[in-house]
Specification:
The complex is a heterodimer of chains A (about 220) and B (about 250). Chain A is of the alpha/beta class and about 220 residues long. Chain A has eleven helices and six strands. The radius of gyration of chain A is 18 Å and the shape is elongated. In chain A, about 50% of the residues are buried. The longest helix of chain B is centred in the middle third of the chain and has 43 residues. Classes of the chains: A alpha/beta (about 220), B alpha+beta (about 250). Chain B: InterPro entries: Sensor_HK_TwoCompSys (IPR050482), Sig_transdc_His_kin_sub3_dim/P (IPR011712).
Chain lengths: ~220, ~250
């Protein structure tokens, strides 16, 4: 895969560069800040750009840079890395795009397998959300959603958590060692209980519906 | 108890002996101070005389504006410490996790024991980073620094055992006022009786003052709020109506 990278911490940037190469990816651009990366990608593209959220231009250069990259290269996937997994940033990221986009903790991409899995899912158009954050969203939904989520079965909670991570039906099936058909049935049941009527066949719409449901307060904040 | 929120045992910005609440509306003027005349104990040569303790020199208590400045500086120092953790230790450990990942990749596939050891080390590093994040959040929440009171208070509300509704302006108020308001809400939510609420938290700006109002709370806990806002020269008013009421704090901004 062709990857671009912007991160202002030299130690982390060098480490990620080496890990990306070891995983067999080609790093086509590597920069210490967002503006520099946008310039490097003026005449070439990458499959996925990896962006540190908290980098120049301050304060959250990763988000600004992502907007510019998405405008210039709509097909380029975006992976945000941060030291913090915050739902506030997740919502801002999803405002930039809801396809081929991801948000993960820096230390969690520290293996060839996880890094490649994350990049491949983004390259395939999926949303990838840090599992720790997805788990927190499912365990602590806002306001009056708590009771509804609490009424789900344990298996349904597993499926909801994996949906909140952005996983596809096949991805969920693989994680839970069940058939995609069984996953479909669980999802239909969950959506029924939550009162959601989104088109479950459309992957990114479904993820958005789930995340919006978990995050919204009664007055729709 | 507020899950995931652990208050400070000590408030570094606390001054000695603030007036007990409830005070009169608009109360919170400067405290009466007794400025003791400084006594000279040393001599011109700089030799330290073997004085009895009662001749020791006491530094005069700082005057109002100086105290408020000290209060503000404490918050700035806390924010610097959080940034230092993020840019220093946390980044180094994250980079170390990547290096271990690279090392793991280079280990031959048949070295299962070695691979498992490296996985174990990586898990430990992740746990260390999580602990650093917890500490950083207690010093000065990075979300508060980067995104302001609205997002930070909503995150706090999500973790509360009682239902909390947050309404804020998009205005920023400076690190000190925002820090004091954030920790005032956090400490208050932590002492509310389980099953109480709902609590409405409203943050507004008025003439260079951050106005924080907390409705639906036991107003006997106003002291918790006062403890945070008074070092910055803030005031706390209480309007009670049969058990629960509204606590309103006004915090001057720089």
């Amino acid at each position: 895969m062709r990857v671009a990278l912007a991160e202002d911490g030299a130690l982390f940037r060098e480490g990620l560069l080496m890990l990306l190469r070891a995983a067999g990816h080609e790093v086509v651009a590597c920069a210490a800040g967002g503006d520099e990366l946008v310039a490097l990608l003026a005449n070439q593209s990458a499959d996925v750009a990896i962006l540190d959220i908290r980098m120049p231009p301050e304060p959250d250069g990763g988000l600004v840079t992502a907007e510019r990259l998405r405008a210039a290269h709509p097909a380029m996937g975006l992976l945000f890395l941060s030291h913090y997994a915050e739902s506030h940033y997740l919502m801002r990221i999803l405002q930039i795009g809801t396809e081929a986009i991801g948000y993960r903790l820096k230390e969690k991409v520290g293996s060839v397998d996880v890094l490649t899995d994350t990049l491949s899912r983004i390259d395939a158009g999926e949303i990838v959300i840090e599992p720790v954050l997805a788990k927190r969203l499912v365990e602590r939904p806002r306001g009056d959603k708590k009771d509804v989520v609490a009424a789900l079965s344990e298996r349904e909670l597993d499926v909801l958590r994996l949906m909140a991570e952005g996983r596809s039906n096949n991805g969920i099936a693989g994680q839970l060692f069940v058939t995609p058909k069984a996953v479909e049935k669980h999802i239909a049941s969950i959506f029924g209980k939550l009162g959601l009527h989104a088109d479950t066949a459309e992957h990114h719409r479904r993820v958005l519906a789930v995340l919006t449901y978990l995050r919204s307060q009664r007055d729709g904040e | 108890m507020l899950a995931g929120y652990r208050g400070f045992g000590e408030n570094p910005t606390r001054e000695v002996g603030f007036a007990p609440l409830p005070g009169p509306p608009g109360g919170g003027q400067d405290l009466p101070m007794t400025l003791e005349p400084a006594q000279r104990t040393g001599d011109a040569s700089g030799h330290r005389p073997a004085d009895p303790p009662d001749r020791a020199e006491r530094i005069p208590e700082p005057a109002g504006e100086q105290r408020r400045r000290q209060g503000r500086e404490q918050w700035l120092r806390r924010r610097r410490l959080e940034r230092q953790l993020h840019d220093g230790a946390a980044l180094r450990i994250s980079a170390l996790s990547l290096q271990l990942g690279l090392f793991r990749h280079r280990v031959p596939a048949d070295e299962a024991v070695l691979q498992e050891s490296i996985d174990g080390l990586q898990d430990e590093l992740h746990a260390v980073l999580q602990e650093l994040r917890d500490v950083a959040g207690k010093i000065y929440p990075p979300l508060l620094d980067e995104a302001g009171l609205g997002p930070a208070l909503r995150e706090l509300a999500d973790r509360a055992d009682v239902p909390v509704h947050v309404t804020t302006t998009a205005s920023r108020f400076g690190a000190a006022a925002e820090g004091a308001a954030y920790f005032a809400v956090g400490e208050l939510l932590a002492v509310l009786a389980p099953g109480s609420g709902p609590v409405a938290v409203v943050v507004d700006a008025a003439d260079g003052v951050l106005v924080l109002s907390l409705t639906g709370v036991d107003t006997r806990h106003a002291e918790v709020v006062d403890y945070q806002v008074r070092p910055l020269g803030g005031t706390v008013d209480v309007a009670a109506g049969g058990g629960t009421g509204t606590i309103t704090a006004r915090i001057p901004c720089e």
